[in-house]
Amino acid sequence: MCIDLPPPICIKGRKYSHLCLAILATFSLPSSAETIITAVDTVKHDSGTSYVAVNVDENNKSWNSDLLIKDISKDLRNSYGLIGYYQSSKDADIYGNLDVSNLYISNTLERYDSFSAIAGAVISQGTFSSNGRISVSGLTHTSVYDRGEVDSDEYVKGISLSSAVLKGVTELKVDGITSNLSQDGSIYGVDWNDSKATSLSQISVSNISGLSPMNGDDSANVYGLNVNGGNLGSQDNRVTLTITNISTRNGNLNGVNIKNNSSYFDTVNIQDLNQGGTASDSLGTSFFGFQVSHASKEQETTSVDIAGTLSVSDLDIQGLQYMDAAAVMVGSEVGRNDTDNHKNGDGRASLTATEISVSDVDVKSTGSGTFFFSSVAVGRDAELTAEKVLVSDVEINHTHNYNSSRYNRFMSGFSANYGTANITSLTVENIKDIGGLYDSETIGVINTNSQMSVGDLTVNDISGKSVYGVLVTNYSRNGDYLASLSVNNLKITNISGSKGDVTGISVEMGGEVTVSNSALINVGEEEMAVVGQDSTNIKFLGNSFKAVGTVLARETLVLNAKESYLTGSLRAESSGALITGENANGIFEITRVAQPLNWIGNDEYGRWTGESENIDALYAEDEDSALLPNTMTEPEEYATIDLNRNMVIRSQNSKEYEGADTAHEGFIAAGAAVRANAGGKILLDDSESHYEIYGNVIAGNGSDLLTMPGMEQTLEDILSQGNKLFGGRISLGGKDLQLVGDVFAANGGKISLDLNGNALFEGRADDYHELKDELKGQVFHNATFVSNDCALKDGTIIHDAGDISITMSENATWIARGQSFVNSLAFSEGFDGKVDLSKDENSSLSIGTLSGSGNFVMRLNADPSKSDMLYVRTLENGANYTITMPETVTRDVASFEDLHGLRIATSNSGEASFKVQMKDMGVRNLTLDVVSEKYDENDPDNVRYNGEGNGEGVWKPGDDVVTEVYGDNGKNWIIDVTSAQEQIKNEAAEQTLSDAAQALIGTARGTYWNAIEIDRFSNRAGDMRYVSGTEGAWVRVRHSRFGTDSGVGNFRSEGMTYQVGYDHAFITNGGRQIVGAAFDYLDNDVDYRSLSGNGNVDRYGLTVYSTWLGDNGGYVDIVGRYGVLDNDFTITNGSGRVVKADYQNHILGLSAEVGHKLTNDSTGWFLEPSVQLQYVRVTEADYATNQGTMVDQEGIDSVISRAGFRFGKMFEGNKSGSVYAKADWFREYQGEQTLNFKDITTSRAGDAISIDNKGNWFDVGLGAQIGLGDNAFGFADVEYRFGNDLERTWIFNIGGRLTF
Q1: Are 465 and 397 in contact (CB under 8 A)?
Q2: 882-927 tens-digit pLDDT
Q3: Among 411-420, 614-623, 780-789, which stretch is predicted with the lowest mean pLDDT?
Q4: Contact (Cβ atoms closer than 8 angstroms) between residue 443 and residue 413
Q5: pTM of model > 0.70
Q6: Beta strands in 434-511 (DSSP E)
Q7: Cβ atoms of 136 and 159 closer than 8 Å
Q8: Cα separation of 1155 and 1159, whole Å?
């Protein structure tokens, strides 16, 4: 009979719409366990002969068992087809499974229009009902080309569904197809066209192989699953798809291709796909592991929804000329220029998956043409939505060695071209290009004219020739598609390129990137971490930005992350803008340690070379602005860096000043913390931001005319034609700026420094402003301006002046190192900071205009060649300037008198006043007058002040330069010490005493009071009359509080004395003689009242005594003492300097006391008058403070008398117990102390200060004693002393005695 073959079996390009097929099977089969079909008959027709094993095309059919079609083999010639099961426009019902296996056809083709086809099961325009599976296995198709090349359309299909409905079918399974079809043929595991299934849960396709044709032609295209139209699965009935072991030689390969369909999968697993390309490199091929193609109609969408994981692994791809390849493809094209290749009128494609995994991919490119590969690709009008995408272990090997730029190639882990991607987590790692193609690009993620939104984007371990971690670009800026990438967390690490071109993330051609939370980019300091150019917009926001490499902006790049760290270079070029957005907070730290440059060549020809082109931490330049017409004041646009946030910028390892010197033979260290060349503008001046900069700041020009040999005349010719050098612009300020490094501006460069609050600038400053006039026409060289492309051994040519303007306010400090030149220095009203020149000997500061009143710290020395100098062209009239000296000067200058006549400054115009203030430098605070005299260019001392010639070898301008600038109208400012000499001689000398002097005097006064300590016999021993025994041991503790209020050297001290003693009593007529000894230790702290700091006195003493106690109440007490006093103090003076010293005194003392106790035995009341005389010798002490003050403390002789009494009452029945009151009168007859001082604040002979301790003082007190049996008692007393400058002086005494 004749039947119509369904579209899937119709041959492409032919009109074989009717084939006569011989049907061997009958369709009323009895019920059994299975029905087996094993043979077919041959049917002749106009085009050849074809075979069908089971045919359902006239009536609906049913089987009550499994239907097995197997073991059919045919050797044929010319046009033949073989189908195991065929159903067309009718319904079939099988109670069981449909299994087709082991179909074989061998067809010899000798006509040009021959065809050859084989199919396991074909269902067209009918309903197929089953409660089982459809299974096809073991299809073998062989074509023999008998007469060379044959134009043959050939197809091999495992299962073909066309407008079919599958009811109850749970599984489609194809296992084993082998064919040597040519390049015009196709092999399908499952071919699904406009069909649907109600119960399908699993599709598996495996072991499909397309062999090379025997005539050597390219092999057929292979599809594991091809879907075109209809519905595959549903939201409630998803399909599990497995594709394994699919291969072809040279032809296109699709593991899965879905088009014009809505498909729902549970999971998809595709693995072991092999495309072996060995044919002519003129062949264009494609490879897609899983492809969602565009819908055919413009308003429609091919939609695939995967609830679980889409896994594609173990891919072996050998690409040919013009290769498009992807493991997962949403859309049609991988390449960048998708808009040109895309068909007009096509619809859209969409893939939604929970997880996409691509791994173990081996790609080999054997052709020389355009080759695009991406593990996951999204094409034009396509959309990918996934929670997780993971691409790993991809290796690419190019074997063709063409290196012309017209061979445009790239390989990527993920690509989007004119599409959309929304991904929660995207990871691309371990992508390697190991081939030899020179100009190939390896890219982790590429976005071309696409909109991408990614939560976590990680790119790790990418290597090749030219390598990008992430590339965002627009091939065309027309239309609705403009590239944008929105990322929450970005991580790019371990990127390397053998060609040397490595970029972490590059944004080009108007692309936009926003990182909203965190970014980590590590490509190495020598590589490009971030590049933005050509109308791009990049934003790093959120919590953190961390990068290793160079960040380059040729358009807008926003750095606003809360915590930002860059190890590398931050650069703006052309019209680029590096800025911070609103509400920037946290810290941004940039570290790019200056790189060593080495001179390669001889003295005349060579080059400074280094490992990196980007040697500056912060850099801005637009090289087109290096030369401007004289009529222009500014370029039309700048490359701008404007960072309104807290910043730390480092080009050196430490935060200490490392200095800058001229180049020396064979090596320099190049690189700046901040550099702006022509057309570059750097603004670090936000009033609410704090900036820390460690390294040099340079504003220069950067033109090759200044760095190449032999260009001097060319430069002069250009400048003579109405042009000028234009340099970069830098503005530094903010809140409490910290700048440690040198500042240079030349060849038109300008730098403004606003030092306010507690700002600190330590370093040199040089703007060559003298090139504007006196030295115009001279040429300097400065190695600090050198970059790694400089070919002048002496460094960059300094042809024109720059401009450095410094404004200082509040408590700002400039530690000016070595020699500095600035166009202007302005002190704001109320300025309390300083300019400190004292760190380097023989320093100088040259200023164009000095305005406002301020303070300078200068190292002054009687030897002018070691003394600092100021050179000022214009002084502000009426301004006042205070010069102070550093602490180190105290060791260089013996006396202030040695500074008489010393020159401190030279100026041209303006009338101001100078004074030298010596505060906290020694024992006196002095102010030295400064007077002016006319500059005499014939003064022989000029060379000592200014340096010889042009100042080479010293930190001075040189006498030739100074004479040129100041010779006509200049004046010198010199020190006059006359008024200071008078001041220390008059009665007000005490007012000049410094904090250190007050501490020295206070310590000396404390020494006196601790040395002359005097107490009565009862303080030491109590009342010994009423205890028995001849041997006695005793102990006492004494707490004392002393203070003075004399006005000079006032102190308060508080200490504890611990004393133990032992004695023996001899019984004599009328009384007892007691002989004993005691040891004591005093620990005393000294406070200096108004000073910040304290002192300490430790005393170690030995006391011997002999006491006679008369039975009649009288007593005589003789005491001898020896002790050692250890004294030390440490204070911080008003200038913040620490002053300290320590010394030792010895004490010798002798005391005699006589008294008599008058007792009323009936009442117990008593009165005990006593007198005492004491002599103490305190030895002298010679010592020095850490400031260098020499102190000679002369010895002290003290003679003190005491007269007093005790009045009290003894306890009834216990005479050893009592309470009493006491009072004493003390008088010092000598006690004078003399301190001799010698330091920079004293006269050459030194100064002396005397302390007169002679005078009277008194004490009053209370005491008690209690008996503790016949042989022991305890005692205590307290007394208050006053008079003779004593203030709030108390003594507390407690002790006990045991006799036996």
Answers
A1: no
A2: 999 887 776 778 899 999 999 999 999 999 999 999 988 899 999 9
A3: 780-789
A4: yes
A5: yes
A6: 441-448, 451-473, 484-507
A7: yes
A8: 13
